[in-house]
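Interim report, section 4.2 (structural modelling).
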Amino acid sequence: MSTDDLATDISKQTENSPRELLTRTFFFLCAGLSIVTTISIVVLLVTEAAKFFTITAPLMGVTGETASLVDFLTGTTWQINSGEFGVLTLVSATVMITLGSAVIAIPLGVATAIYLSEYASKRARSVLKPALEILAGVPTVVYGFFALIYITPALSVVFPSIGTFNMLSASVVVGVMIIPMVASISEDAMSAVPDELRQAGYGMGATKFDVATGIVVPAALSGIFSSFILALSRAIGETMAVTIAAGSRAQFLNPLNPASFLEGSLPMTAAMVQLLLGDITGGGLAYRSLFAIGLVLFVITLIMNVISDFVAQRYREEY
Amino acid sequence: MSEQNRDEQRTGDAGSPDPTDDEMLIQTDVSESVERTGASFDRDTVVSARDINVWYGDDQALQNISMDIPEKSVTAMVGPSGCGKSTFLRCINRMNDLIDSARVEGDLYLRGKNVYDDDVDPVALRRRVGMVFQKPNPFPKSIRENVTYGLKIQDKGGDYDEIVEESLKRAALWEEVKDQLDESGLELSGGQQQRLCIARAIAPDPEVLLMDEPASALDPVATSQIEDLIEELAQEYTVVIVTHNMQQAARISDQTAVFLTGGELVEFDDTQKIFENPESQRVEDYITGKFG
Ligand SMILES: Nc1ncnc2c1ncn2[C@@H]1O[C@H](COP(=O)(O)OP(=O)(O)OP(=O)(O)O)[C@@H](O)[C@H]1O
Ligand SMILES: [Mg+2]
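Predicted structure of the assembly:
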């Protein structure tokens, strides 16, 4: 082959061929679509929420009723009719459900993951993993009814003073709901731990328990933490089940007081459902409070995601 | 080779505890001559295999392996890839138990006790038989925690700092890491990691040390460090090492076992004899590189 031939042969011909161009553009548009959607939603949330607060409303050119930002962030009463918008009331309920579900889902989810990854036979795993995935696929409204019809009556045997709507059964049901998420992400992390490390452990005379808890879990820690944070983000955003189980009466509860769990309250998501179902007027204050709550919820889950990324970076598996 | 020294040491060491009556019985059983391979050495036997057969599913990996491995020496296992060297090594500490498809038949005695008896706990067995793998596999923990791991899982007491220093010194790693004991074992080079794994294996003071191609992932300098180390260790431990490197086997081992394809042990004798004057033509062919 002459030099000329070779030069033509290896010159750029494929990079901008029509087919390459077309597919590249298509994939770019697909990726772009989700980014544009996300940005639009955030912009909408922020601008609409801004119309709610006294200090920002003038910037948006809104006149009429507004609410104080300070009262919103520090108030502990949520009474739309009397114009009291203390978001802490709703946040406290959300925090309770998050804590309560964490107490259930973290130990059970991690234990399930350890069982699946370290103890289960191939057969047991082939039955249990799909079962977990089915559990994750049950519509959340079903979980809500399950809480109301079965969990609360069962709990009332132990706690006679429990209300029909209460945070405990909401927490239990959300906890059960997110177990599959904790279990399956943690299990992935544990399965990714190289077998050489287990061999090393067994070779030293470690028991199965030693290997599972002393080698596999520490090596998979960042994945396990990520599973917690993702699952808890889901618990925070969970709507249907808590709307049904937790009730509709907003009251500020101390999340650290166990007795609070026997009472009902209104988590942020349920409050938004309530606002949407009530006959709120298009531009009214109640309507705009919807966006303010939405923004708070968004900020909380955003923080959770940032923490999750940080943890994943910081404690990256280094085997 | 410090043959003479070692012999002296053996005589000096004769005060080992008397075997119980039961063990005596088994001992007599075991010491019937090992047919075919013919070898019997003047040192006490630590590991004796009798008619070990191993299958993975329906494929037989080892056929009627019988051999007596003498204490405080280096026994090398050589042979072509897939002939069952690693499989045999894993029989000694029952790591084959962890492979679902593996089935072991036959008897294997560690100081006269059949490790395949029903009352033997493989976990306890592995605490007496250390293992070093082909690929360095330190735990993602600090150097110190790596070395003390075996002691911790066994709830062994003792002065950990001293044991860490002692083990790392014996593994010829102390000088290089003494100022970074709390840093991750994964931050070491490959050769250092392998020496860390050796320190980890010897820290709980095992009876036997099994090494499966411990230097195959290392450069020549690290390899020769590990080789020196193995010769050192053989003063106190019984070392069984698998290697693909004939020169290595000739350099560091006292006895050599030659396995050939099909999972049979063809010859087991003093290393010098195997390399200079093997009984079997197949062994000579293998060693001189004519096949395998
Ligand atoms: N986990 C396993 N499952 C099924 N078969 C196996 C397994 N391990 C080994 N074998 C088979 O057993 C035979 C012996 O393998 P082994 O690993 O003991 O050989 P080896 O002599 O150590 O080889 P190498 O020198 O390549 O390490 C091979 O045919 C191999 O395919
Ligand atoms: Mg091998």
